[in-house]
# Entry
Amino acid sequence: MSTKMHNDSETVLPPSETAPQAKSLLVDVPVDSHNAALNLMIAFLSVAQKRGTFNMQESAKLWECINQFTGPQDPPPSQQIDKNAGSNTTS
# Structure
């Protein structure tokens, strides 16, 4: 029985955060600002989540924490609920 191992330490940054022709390993990205450090921590947490490190509750709490820094994403207008649309009362 063989086990296939994934080397997620070779996870690359999205193209918007790297030079157009070069791919950078997360471990090779310089930590030269608070923002860079925070982005790297989020990226490494994402790698840990992909490896199955966290259970559902822990994952949800991490997502809540990440949203404190990245800002909550508003749902598309089609998914927003009109509070008055559901009431069938007449005056």
About this structure: The mean pLDDT is 73. The first helix runs from residue 34 to 50.
